[in-house]
Amino acid sequence: MRKGLLIRYRELREKGIAAGSKVPRVLVFAILLAILVGDVSVVAYVVAGELWIVLLGTIVLICALLFSLVLASFPFEKAVSRAGEALAFVSSINILGIALPSFGDQFVNFAAFSVVCLSTLVLWQDRLAEVKPKGTRRGYLAIALTVLPLALAMNEFAIHGGVIPAPFLGEIPVWFFFVACLFGFSEEAIFRGGVQRNLMGLLGWKFSLLAGGLLDAGLMAFWGSGYLILLTFGIAIVMGFIFEKTRSVPICGSIRAMQAFWLILMFYLF
Question: Where are the domains positioned within the chain?
Answer without folding.
Answer: 2-269
